[in-house]
Amino acid sequence: MGTWDTGPFDNDTAADFANALDEAVPEAREALIRGVLVRTIDATGYLAEAEEAVAAAALIAAQCPGGEAVDMPYGPETPMPVFPSDLRVRADEALARIVGDEDGPASNWVDPEDWKQWRAILTRLRAVLVPPPPSIALFDVQL
């Protein structure tokens, strides 16, 4: 994997994923993102699509309250569809799987400071992806 920085699209694999999203018809983009997340969650052994899953999670987080726009030079150039809320949970599950895989992408960082920065990015993404708790209407009780 060619990596030049710690951002979600700052590696060859994620940049290629962004290109695939740009080349896909708009209706197929959600399926591409959902597919990479589900395969990462369900993977046994080596997480072959971890870099794509991080990029997909960043695209979903960008649509959440508190999310940051994905406007980096290697991200998708075409607008993404509005993603259904269930993808937030899938993205968080995929990131949890990636963070917990000690032999996966976390082990690829040579410089410990880069690893810390990458880990902080994943932590921020996960914080944004957590769905808000269901609200329960409280009733005003009059005595």
TrEMBL record:
Protein name, as recorded: DUF4259 domain-containing protein
One Pfam family matching this protein: DUF4259
Species of the source: Streptomyces althioticus
InterPro entries named among the record's database cross-references: DUF4259
